[in-house]
From TrEMBL:
The keyword Oxidoreductase applies. Keywords: NAD, Oxidoreductase. It comes from the Bacteria. Pfam families: UDPG_MGDP_dh (PF00984), UDPG_MGDP_dh_C (PF03720), UDPG_MGDP_dh_N (PF03721). Belongs to the UDP-glucose/GDP-mannose dehydrogenase family. SUPFAM superfamilies: 6-phosphogluconate dehydrogenase C-terminal domain-like, NAD(P)-binding Rossmann-fold domains, UDP-glucose/GDP-mannose dehydrogenase C-terminal domain. SMART domains: UDPG_MGDP_dh_C. This is UDP-glucose 6-dehydrogenase. Pathway: Nucleotide-sugar biosynthesis; UDP-alpha-D-glucuronate biosynthesis; UDP-alpha-D-glucuronate from UDP-alpha-D-glucose: step 1/1. It comes from Salinimicrobium flavum. NCBIfam families: NDP-sugDHase. Its EC number is 1.1.1.22. PANTHER family: UDP-GLUCOSE 6-DEHYDROGENASE, UDP-GLUCOSE DEHYDROGENASE/UDP-MANNAC DEHYDROGENASE.
Length: 464
């Protein structure tokens, strides 16, 4: 079976870039990305390709090439479902904020809505692909909904979790370590569906990197991969605190440990804490699943990764207050970086939000600069926490477009995102314009310490 027409439900950080790359690499497949969020679709269709809603290096060029040729963005979900032979579900699966599993389980209401819509609309057989990150055994629920509410057509459900990281999404999609496809490989129809999706990726991914498993292994592998990655960050962050007490340097420890080929050098960078839409949500989901099977030790083991991360964010902010003579009340503090990592405009679960909130509770005046995050987003992130009124956030927090302006007259500067441009700022000029003593807190181990100390900064870095 050859796929000719793909529909992707969800034009977000995963659906948008993934489908853009599929469209670019497979000019014979028509790819339509649909979303209920009209303004997001309008942004994807903006004639100025630099205005697409997601910032990812290299993405706008791909969209420019494929959009209008075989890549389309639309709000007409029904039509795209009807036309497609393969439907990707790439909607959000956030942590539940209500009811059973509140604060832990994944909220699957958007997934279920998609399934019901597909069942209502589809008039011929479809392959439905789980692209969203889902709890293990979600495919079973999807199949039940599709089979029991549909128009008597046949569905094959595949699990094809996405491993891209934001900021490097295009590279990750072009050259993935592996593409995981879970399907019902014991039935001829299931096998055929797996092969159809494999053939799509094989247009640009070497066959040996296309990995096939059963559906449950595929679903669980995604949660496992994120849990392992986050665990490495929490592990090195735990050591960063011990380094600060003992005179060891966490960068040196990470290098020494990472040179062991069994451990490897990646994902050992100490930081102010991991953020992003995935790590916390997926581990909480894993913890919830383990608990629901009565596996309390398994649940506790993984929950510690989150507890350590919460501790790291809080500890960083508390250290700032402590260093500044135990009070930041009325003091201007510049935060450089708001995105959860460099090269993205995504701020979901960014450590910066929590550091700012802590400092605001201590009555600091905050000025934020981030090269890609809008003022509106920064206020919305703070408002979402509900720690104080929207007016209070707007009174205590200023957002500026120039890093030097952010630091002008400040008592302290904190680096919260590792944007490359922060390394080449005129730090002498920044120092000259700050109040003295001028405090500089590096939450990313981005800056070279000796030169900053020589300028005169009171310099603090994670794990040093
Ligand atoms: P997102 O919030 O950026 O995008 C999801 C989109 O789905 C939104 O635009 C929303 O309007 C749309 N949507 C929701 N319900 C819909 C419906 N019924 N019909 C049409 N559109 C609907 O989310 P995201 O970051 O792209 O994540 C999507 C999934 O991929 C999640 O399960 C996430 O865990 C997973 N994932 C994310 C990343 C990442 O880096 N962001 C990486 C791997 C996996
Ligand atoms: C992650 C996974 O890497 C990706 O495979 C999955 O598909 C989605 O979740 P993402 O959250 O986009 O990707 O970015 P990632 O590079 O993993 O960074 C997550 C957070 O950890 C960021 O806040 C980053 O700054 C932090 N981090 C990462 C560290 O603090 N230290 C590190 O060594 C690596």
């Amino acid at each position: 079976m050859t796929i000719k027409n793909i529909c992707c439900i969800g034009a977000g950080y995963v659906g948008g870039p993934t489908m853009a790359v599929i469209a670019q690499k497979c000019p014979n497949i028509k790819v339509t990305v649909v979303d209920i969020n009209e303004s997001r679709i309008n942004q994807w269709n903006d004639p100025n390709v630099e205005k697409i809603p997601i910032y990812e290096p290299g993405l706008s060029d791909i969209v420019k090439e494929a959009r209008g040729r075989n890549l389309f963005f639309s709000t007409d979900v029904d039509k795209a479902i009807d036309d497609a032979d393969m439907i990707f579900i790439s909607v959000n699966t956030p942590t539940k904020t209500y009811g059973i599993g509140k604060g832990m389980a994944a909220d699957l209401k958007f997934i279920e809505l998609c399934a019901r819509q597909i069942a209502r609309v589809a008039k011929d057989d479809k392959i439905v692909v789980e692209k969203s990150t889902l709890p293990v055994r979600t495919a079973e629920a999807l199949k039940n909904i599709l089979d029991n509410t549909g128009n008597g057509v046949n569905y094959q459900i595949l699990s094809n979790p996405e491993f891209l990281a934001e900021g490097t999404a295009v590279d990750d999609l072009m050259n993935p370590d592996r593409v995981l496809i879970g399907g019902d490989i014991d039935s001829p129809e299931g096998k055929e569906a797996v092969e159809a999706l494999t053939d799509v990726y094989a247009q640009w991914v070497p066959r040996e990197r296309l990995l096939t498993t059963n559906v449950w292994s595929s679903e669980l592998s995604k949660l496992t991969a994120n849990a392992f990655l986050a665990q490495r960050v929490s592990s090195i962050n735990a050591m960063s605190e011990l380094c600060e007490k003992t005179g060891a340097d966490v960068n040196e420890v990470a290098k020494a440990v990472g040179m062991d080929s069994r451990i490897g050098p990646k994902f050992l960078k100490a930081s102010v804490g991991f953020g992003g839409s995935c790590f916390q949500k997926d581990i909480l989901n894993l913890v919830y699943i383990a608990k629901s099977f009565g596996l309390n030790e398994v649940a506790d083991y993984w929950e510690q990764v989150i507890l350590m991360n919460d501790h790291q964010k809080k500890r960083f902010a508390a250290n700032m207050v402590k260093a500044m003579y135990n009070t930041v009340s009325g003091k201007k503090i510049a935060l450089l970086g708001w995105a959860f990592k460099k090269d993205t405009n995504d701020t979901r679960e960014s450590a910066a939000i929590y550091v700012a909130d802590y400092l605001l509770n201590e009555q600091a005046e905050i000025v934020v600069y981030d090269p890609k995050v809008t003022e509106e987003q920064i206020y919305s992130d703070l408002d979402y926490l509900g720690s104080r009124s929207g007016d209070a956030n707007r009174q205590a927090v200023t957002v500026v477009n120039d890093p030097l302006e952010a630091c002008d007259g400040a008592h302290a500067v904190a680096i919260l995102t590792e944007w490359d441009e922060f390394t080449t700022l005129d730090w002498q000029k920044i120092y000259d314009q700050m109040l003295k003593p001028a405090f500089l807190f590096d939450g990313r181990r981005l800056l070279e310490p000796e030169t900053k100390k020589k300028i005169g900064f009171e310099f603090y870095a994670i794990g040093n």
